[in-house]
TrEMBL record:
Tagged with keyword DNA-binding: yes
Gene3D superfamilies for this protein: Erythroid Transcription Factor GATA-1, subunit A, Retinoid X Receptor
One MF annotation (Gene Ontology) recorded for this entry: DNA-binding transcription factor activity
Coiled coil segments of this chain: none
InterPro entries hit by this protein: NHR-like_dom_sf, Nucl_hrmn_rcpt_lig-bd, Znf_hrmn_rcpt, Znf_NHR/GATA
Domain of life the protein comes from: Eukaryota
Gene Ontology CC terms: nucleus
Record-given protein name: Nuclear receptor
One Pfam family per UniProt: zf-C4
SMART domains for the chain: HOLI (SM00430), ZnF_C4 (SM00399)
Domain annotation NR LBD: ranges: 134-392
Amino acid sequence: MPSRGPARQIVSIFFHFMYFSAKISSKDRDCLVCGEATHIAHLGINLCRACAVFYRRAKLSHDFVCRTTTGSCPPGKGFNCKRCRYDHIVSLLERAGVLNTSDVSEESAHSNISSCSSEKTERPFLERVKTHYKAMSLHRHNSELNSRPNPPHPLEVSLEKGPFYPADFASMTSSVRILMSAALDFGANAFPDFARLEAAEKWELAMNFFYLFRMFEACYRTSKIFTREDKKYFVSYSTYFTVPFDKNFFNTAPQGADLQGVYQHMVSMTSGDQLPLLHHHVDLFTRLNLSEEEFITVAVLMFWTTSDLNVSEEIHQLGERIRGDILKELYAFYREEMGLVDYAVRLGELMMVMQMFEKKEEMKEHYETLRLYNIMKDDNFIYRLQKDLKIE
């Protein structure tokens, strides 16, 4: 069965960057030390054979003196200072995480190699989105806590430490409204082009983001804050579900709701296939241990996944450009911070995570079921939200 909508777009992103990576790896690249062309990356980094041989010999005895006495001769073609050449290779290997420290003497380990390392690529897009995601998180956390009957003292509030509370029906509805409001502000602040869109287009993107991002973020934060033994799973920024399902969740349900029926429905869901699936998701996040940069990148990709939305061609093209921009900065992060030359496998894992949360149809069906139990009325914000979302 062919993949549809966001799945096609996710697969397209992945293969585009697989192709880009293959193009890079299949042609000659410049040696990071001497600047000469090399077809093979030696020692796990872009190092030519001559520099690799020099390093292997020099690490046995490297009593060299800098030719300029500065200890910072610039690398590149004509680089013939043995002291700085050796120190620069050591610096590159350390940053790539492939240096065997036992091969380097104490003198080399304490030498001033930082001055020889190449400048890092600036990542303004990632940094801007990070800043505005944190602002969105603070807004959501504080708004959710202050909407509680007995909110905690402001000095007791922390994004990392909570306090966090068991979810109930009223808090869940309120948190969704807060998230949607915050998502619109996030979009306008993080993406200048978003602020210029028509109101209906902004709402379409924000709704789509809600369905893709909400549980992705919940699993990510669950893996960072709770343990498997806690049996707690975030469902909003400040509230969580517990396993087994807490019957008190429906204490704030509207009058006339079939409480016994919906409780049995939720118990059946959480004790059946859903619980192992939830454990799988959280365990996967724990194993992958996504960096903040990877988390932010996925958030941007989800915000601008437009393939099955009823929006203009201009917005589809805008989304494609923004997705490309954030992935370029992620690649720079992989290369310079994580030491990954071949990042295709890691990127593929991110795309797999994205596809796991393509659950709009399932969520719409779930809310319709709750409507049948009179848990959600026609004017309930969450129910109206799923009614408004049109999937092509």
